[in-house]
Specification:
- This protein has about 400 residues and is an alpha+beta fold.
- The protein folds into three domains: about 130 residues, PAS domain (Beta-Lactamase), CATH 3.30.450; about 70 residues, Signal transduction histidine kinase, dimerisation/phosphotransfer (DHp) domain (Helix Hairpins), CATH 1.10.287.130; about 150 residues, Heat Shock Protein 90.
- The chain has twelve helices and twelve strands.
- Strand 4 and strand 5 form a beta hairpin.
- Helix 7 packs antiparallel against helix 8, helix 9 runs parallel beside helix 10 and helix 10 runs antiparallel to helix 11.
Length: about 400
């Protein structure tokens, strides 16, 4: 059990820091999947964060069908679920272990706290073993058969995913190149045409044509970006860097737009180091600031960095039109523009926040949005602090999970 707690701790720290699948994470997944003992990681509120196949099978499900659910939703009786959640809360509060008989049926579930770098309990690791007096051998054989079938199924799925990713990458690369060429030609021809037009009415039509070409080109580029993120073709290259470098570029980029709208734009200086991908982080912040300026007519936009525990958070505040609470989740959906029912392309494409969501998932950064209609909106991006390079070197020198 101590080994499971150590492994989960290492997994959480690395996954939060890197935000994408690593060799170490893949090894952890293989380790848990190969275990015939039902294992799970519970949140302090009793939700199932991650389970191995043995745990899911014990409740009649596959892992992805019950992850994120409570035990009662996964199939446990209300009384059993309430008892387990009470034991999780007690163990989390005391920092001790707890053993629960009969969960899953015929087994005993042992709970062990999982602590973060500061020693605080952030989840509970659970492992089940056959209860005393049960026929453990038959249970083991049944689980082994289930797991062997699961491993074969997972291997087929992985191979298919690799083939699909390669095909998607080739298609998107070709589409991006071949479809962009006509737009570049149209822009050139439009420029030559405008040089020959002198009639005001004709020039007005020419300017509208330019807007249509630019809008279509922007839509194509955005769709390709969304597709690459969705297909998993974008990889994060995380490193330590000064967040002020990104903020300085944001100041230079958005100052003219704010000035044109007579808005105050304050992107405050920040003396802080973070661990992220600097290019992808800017791609994440750009739509947030752009939206804040687009939907603000009076007042201004403030961007600042605050310390939050050991990490940092970038906050984008505006005094704009705001979003009703019931529409906050919908704001992150594709092609959703809550105040643009006529789909006016001058107001954007409705993909900015959906790209933010995908980039945040890729980087492992949490993004939250709060808003009040008529008062404004704040979007918060939580960032991990810079990592100790000496500690990273020690971790790279550690044996792989497969050898533990």
């Amino acid at each position: 059990m101590l080994l499971i707690g150590k492994v989960v701790n290492q997994y959480n720290a690395k996954a939060q820091a890197e935000g994408h699948m690593t060799a170490r994470e893949a090894q952890l997944d293989a380790l848990l999947s190969a275990s015939v003992a039902p294992q799970a990681l519970f949140a302090p509120d009793g939700r199932l964060l991650v389970v191995n196949r043995a745990f899911a099978v014990a409740f009649g499900h596959l892992p992805d069908e019950i992850e994120g659910l409570r035990l009662e939703e996964a199939g446990a009786t209300p009384a059993v679920a309430a008892h387990v959640e009470a034991q999780i809360r007690r163990a989390a509060a005391t920092g001790g272990t707890a053993t629960i008989e009969g969960v899953p049926a015929g087994m005993a579930l042992t709970l062990t706290p999982v602590r973060d770098a500061d020693g605080l309990v952030h989840s509970m690791a659970a492992i089940a073993v056959p209860a005393a007096g049960t026929d453990a051998s038959s249970s083991r054989e049944a689980l082994l058969r289930e797991l062997e079938a699961a491993r074969a199924e997972a291997e087929r799925a992985r191979e298919e995913a690799v083939r699909a990713r390669k095909a998607a990458g080739k298609f998107l690369s070709t589409a991006n190149h071949d479809l962009r060429q006509p737009f570049q030609a149209m822009q050139l021809f439009h420029h030559l045409l405008m040089m020959k037009l002198t009639d005001p009415a004709a020039r007005d039509l020419g300017e509208k044509l330019e807007m249509a070409i630019m809008g279509s080109d922007a839509l194509l580029r955005t769709l390709v970006e969304v597709s690459r993120l969705e297909a998993g073709l974008v990889e994060a290259a995380t490193e330590n860097f000064a967040v002020e470098d990104s903020l300085r570029r944001m100041r230079e980029e958005f100052a003219p737009e704010a000035k044109a709208k007579l808005l105050r734009l304050s992107i405050r200086k920040a003396d802080a180091q973070v661990h992220s991908d600097p290019v992808l982080l800017e791609r994440l912040l750009r739509p947030l600031i752009s939206n804040a300026l687009r939907y603000t007519d009076r007042g201004g936009v403030v961007v600042g960095v605050r310390r939050r525990g050991v990490g940092l958070r970038v906050e984008v505040w505006d005094s704009g039109i705001g979003i009703p609470e019931s529409d906050v989740e919908a704001a992150f959906e594709d092609f959703r523009q809550l105040d643009n029912p006529n789909r006016d392309r001058k107001q954007g494409l409705g993909l900015g926040l959906s790209i933010v969501r995908r980039l945040a998932d890729l980087l492992g950064h949490q993004v939250t949005l709060r808003s009040r209609p008529g008062r404004g909106t704040v979007v918060v991006v939580d960032l991990p602090p810079a990592r100790d390079e000496r500690q990273d070197a020690v971790q790279r020198a550690e044996p792989s999970l497969a050898s533990l």
